[in-house]
Amino acid sequence: MEEAAADSKTIPQRMLQRSSRLAAMLGQRRSQLHKVDATPPYVMERCGTVMVPEKGNPLEEEGVLNPASARGADGSIYLFPRMVAAGNFSRIGRVRVHVDGSGVPIGVERLGVAVQAEHSWEVRGVEDPRISWLPRLRLWIMTYTAVGPLGPRIAIASSEDLITWKKLGLATFVSEPTLGVDFNGYHNKDALVVPNPVTAPDGTLCYAIIHRPMWDMSWTAGSSGTVLPEGTTDSREAMWVSYAPAREVERDARRLTVMFQHRPLALPEYPWEEVKIGGGTPPVSVPEGWLILHHGISRRSPDFPGDRGLTYSAGAMILDRKHVERVLARSRTPLLVPERKGETEGIVGHVVFPTAIEPHANGKDSYTVFYGMADSQIGAAILRREPAAPQTDGSPGSLIPGMPLSG
Fold it and tell me: pTM for this structure?
């Protein structure tokens, strides 16, 4: 008994030491977020508009936008667009993409509704899906925004065939005392799932989920407004990453909804991101690590009274293959900005919002990107890798000066 009592006295001390170590690690992590010098070696070129609202279709009365994508067993690309009915009520559709002889998207064939509101936590609609293929689960995983009584939340669904979707539930975030907040209390959007397990901060093998918590808590009773995690000083919305243990997820895909070890991934850094940033396309494997496109928001002069005066542009990041918290390269200037009429005029003008990416038919170094245009239509663009620059660091195989291959 005396030995047990002696051991019990050390428990608070051990907890305090663990909290101190975690707080120090988080502080160090935040101090490193702005030390990215390399630029992803990609350029983007528009293909044109792929999908517009169908006249007379009440499900698309207020626009089609922000699709997820996947390549089916038949080799076709399928999009899962957000379809907006009257009153800004959204469903997620399913369409087959038509391409020309060179693989460039030129239109779509509508195949119905893939996901719609069924539960109380999504009673106000389902929005902005992203899809990743998880090979170790042999499942397509869709993240989407479920809008319910408590506002927008991340929800997850799975499919074996891209036709039938099983809802796994809302994402939940296990609280970490050192952060001083409960992430379940925040509105949250723009979730991206890394397809293969990576190393979490504690060294365990996990699936990583990138997301964008929204710090404004003014919608809750008794809140004075912005509530930030401990140690966070920048109140702008940014990209965070959380982890789900791979062993548990591979036993039961529903465990993907239970996330631990929440860490900041990237903050607004460049002028085109001055207001906030968020995840765009699901991660795809490239030689250096994981490539994602993200959106950044900047300010402009309003076009008319009531216009928010914001511009949504798109850039790229490359994340380390094993440790996704490490941003290896990042766009200093956007790859795509709203310039054409369909991008500057619409339900919400001056918006390009990439959410889907697929390997292009012309080669492994190019991708077809699908993006929302002014919250009204869907466009396509080709993302191409630029020729390799001369090596400056002596790292064999490095395709970005000063940046060795990860993993």
Answer: 0.89
